[in-house]
Each structure stands twice: as structure tokens, then as C-alpha cells.
Amino acid sequence: MARLTYSAQDSVYKVFDLNNYSMLYYSISDKSVQEIKISPGIMLLTFKRATSHVPLQILSIEDGTVLKSFNHLLHKKKKVDFIEQFNEKLLVKQENENLQILDVRNAEQIQVSTTEFMTPSAFIFLYENQLFLTFRNRNVSVWNFRGELVTSFEDHLLWHPDCNTNNIYITSDQDMIISYCKADTEDQWMEGNAGSINISNILTGKCLAKIKANDAPPKEEEEEECSSSGSRNSKQRKTAVAEALEDITSLFYDEERNEIYTGNRHGFLHVWSN
């Protein structure tokens, strides 16, 4: 594993080995470098754009050796929405243009119509499954590198429209996604900002489980039959669950303990366990 740092004062990138936190013996000091993307074992360097192309380099993370240098042709006067790298695949999208999926080994290219693939706000690459997630307008989609939509989720509308990845967890097997989501209208039994924690299968899009504000406590009509203390306790519990699901800013899943940890903007930590 490698970590990249950048000194704005010196315009120098440095690569650190996360196994022992030592700096690898090379650095990158080319001021024309605009962006660096890291994939397992390699880095993609994006340089300042020319009129009709963008210069690119692929480097070995281990020693900084240049593995490949090439220019990717662009449409003039159209801004680049993104350039992303996944192993030997390069994803390039310009404004109002098709998505291009380029294999840098043999220059083979796949184009995905702009009507099918619209520019997302964020990506998550699934290296185990050779797939990638896109996030756009609170929606999550799963794609393969043939440009085919693999999964659309049946019940996974994210809370944040701009995809706050602090509120998203992908399991180590990359088969489940756990996110802080917008609650269904019928789930919102009280006024407030309570969302829900949704757990979905990445490959099928099916919702496997959901933690929501009205889970477990009895309904209002059932509360009337309870004793006064029982009614108060159930209402208190409903309030506590709803408050814990408000304004969540971070989410983590402990796969060994099968527990979900959430933190909110007030600085409180909550643990959700079976």
C-alpha cells in the first residue's frame, strides 16, 4: 500500500510505503503534473492539457519507473469531466461526450453513450470483482469495464446528493454496500432529519436489511394499551433511535463483530448490533 503526499510550496509529490511508513526513494517534482491517481502497483500521472490532447504517464509505485507514456486525444474546447484509472483501464469523459474506456495495453477503446452514462460525482472501484460504482444524484449504480450497467439498487437512495463517502462502507468481499440513506416517506413517523442505514447486495441490488427510525418500538395505537411507564419508555426509545439516525457524518462496519458504528455532527458515537 502506498500513500501520496504533495508539498504546495515545493510542488513535489512524495510516495510513502504504508507497511512501514517510510518514504520510497523517489519523488515527483514535475510542475506540469496536474493530478495523480493510484491503483494497486501503479500510478497515473495527468499533465497539463494541450489543445487537442492530454499527456499521460503510467508509473510503477515501487520505484517510479515510467511504464508507459502516451497522449489521449480530446475534443477541442470541451472540458474534461474526469480521467480515472483502474489497473490497465482508463476512463475518460468530456462534457456532453461519450464515456471512453481505454485499455492502455493495446489501445482498444469502448464508448458508452452519454445518454446511458452521465457524469457521476464520485467513483468507487471494486478491485476484487472488476467492477466500479458510480454515484450521481443520490443514486448508486454498478458498471463493468465493457461499459455495461450491472446493477441498479432497488432501495438505496443516499442521504447526501454529492456522495459523502464517509457515510458509505463496502465490505471486504465487495459484495455488500452499507450507506446512510434517505428514509422512505412511510418510515418517517415524526418530524426531523432521521435517515436510515441501508444494507444492499452489490451484485443484485437487493436491499438485505435496513435500520430506520420506527424499527422495533410499538405503533401509536398499541402504545395506548400499555401502562403509562411502558408508553413513556417506548416513546423515549423511538426518540433515541430517531435522534441517532439524524445528521450522521460517518459510518463504519466491523465485519468481525457484525456491528455498525455511526457518528453524528454533534460528536456522538452510536453502535448498532444484533
Automatic annotation (TrEMBL):
Gene3D superfamilies: YVTN repeat-like/Quinoprotein amine dehydrogenase
Superkingdom of the organism of origin: Eukaryota
Positions of region (Disordered): 214-239
Entry-linked Pfam families: DUF7899
Protein name: Transducin/WD40 repeat-like superfamily protein
Organism for this UniProt entry: Microthlaspi erraticum
